[in-house]
Amino acid sequence: MSITVENLSYVYLPDTPMQKQALFDVSVHIDDKEFVGIIGHTGSGKSTLIQHFNGLVKPTSGRVLVDGVDLTQKGVNLRAIRRKVGMVFQYPEHQLFGETVFEDVAFGPKNSGVPDAALEDRVREGLAMVDLDLDVLRERSPFELSGGQKRRVAIAGVLAMKPAILILDEPTAGLDPRGRDEILSQVQSLYQAWDLTVILVTHSMEDIARMAKRLIVMDHGRIALDGTPQDVFSNADKLRSMGLGVPQVTTLIHELHRRGLVQRRDIFTLDEAESEITRVLELKRHGNA
Amino acid sequence: MAMLRNITIGQYVPGDSWIHRLDPRTKILATMALIALLFLVQSFPGYGFAALYVLAAVYVSKLPPRYVIRGLRPLLVIIILTLTLHIFMTDGRVLWQWGFISITWEGLVRGAMMGTRLVLLVLGTSILTLTTSPIHLTDGIESLLKPGKPIGIPAHELAMMMTIALRFIPTLLEETEKIMKAQMARGADFESGNLLQRAKNLIPLLVPLFISAFRRADDLAVAMEARGYRGGEGRTKFRELQFAVRDGACLAGVTVFTVVVSVLF
After folding, report:
1. CA atoms within 13 A on the CB side of A167
2. Which residues from chain A sit within 8 angstroms of residue B189, using beta carbons?
3. Could you tell me the residue ranges of all domains in chain B?
4. Which residue, among A13, A85, A94, A158, would best test binding to B if mutated, counting the most B CBs under 10 Å from its CB?
């Protein structure tokens, strides 16, 4: 499923002294089965933008099309859209309410009309995708789980709806490095296993660089950069002026490149940097020998 | 969600008008004078003067008039109810009758007066909150309540409770909106169904909201203790309230105006 945004503008609290324009004439197309990272400073409009993708926020002007359906038209079945466009909010564990893990995860599929007999499978599948076992957790209260487990249960609640597009808003915020890696690798394997379109909002360059095939950089309510990680991270100065940065290894590689020690500049994961530097060192050793 | 944004209670609009700069105590007293005036006058010219007072205040405050009037919207139902009750329930000279329903001249007059009184009351008091930051407002209330301390009025504690309550209105509204969106993304429906169904649908909103309110209260209590808070005893202030010449002028003007208008009309 694809998402198309045309000339989208959004004004927050119009006609009040607190009026503030959050998005300015944004146009973007996200194709079926893309893995897109949206990055931007706090207040750059990235969260507002993604909330247009399932009709939670109505544009002040412009159009949003999901799978060809114009969400701004009257009479659009938004619940059907929201079933297909799954959205995991920031700190999703704050939305947990069920008495048991089962009840909470089943909330979404139940609302989207999954018959009771099939609920069990949906819940089991959703939990399995985040490495949790329904048989262990079924009757547990979600509130007595650990922080990382709570978050995974909340994400399972969205996955159990079997969306075709998965949007995650800062899914790793406030997690320790291990929890962060777990969530990200689960997202990665979901992307491959379910043929999903994934939109990942973050301000961690490290996370996004090794996962997304396309990056959209937001700045002050506009799209500042849009392209492959190579394209985007080659604009290191522009990113820095927007209060963002490039991954630390990229800064290192850029510096080595400036001193003429490596040829490539388009490196943004630790593994790549390691192999490039070893390669250069090997060459050097052979050259000297 | 649009409804959440219409709540202007406790909303402060920063500005630099003459009214914004008045001492909060002056503004509280002037608002009380307006309330007294509205309950003392009994004739239309009296309400005219009270309206003039409110309009002048809006003008001097430089607030956008449309925004001030918007504050009336949540009270529309109450105002219309008052009007209808007075129009149909007052005895007197009958103007129109249909079965047992009748409209009297006295009813029309009373209804109009009550309606005006309510509108002016809300507008007048909202100018106070719109031009005074919550911190100043509670400082003012604390200072005005202080003389009651010997007879057991806990001025500081009341003021602190008010500050915290006001401070958390926007936070909780924001939280509500966020949780509503998260549950709507999971197919929750807050808008249709019968009364019982709707109440049941609120559970996924209310449970997380209560949990977050308790979490915030807990965090706040710890943060206050960590900074050595132990009530108002011996506490000094960073910003001292200070009466200026304009406060004296304003209070004198308001007092004279209120007394003269309420005696004459």
Report:
1. 28
2. 79, 111
3. 1-132+241-265
4. A94
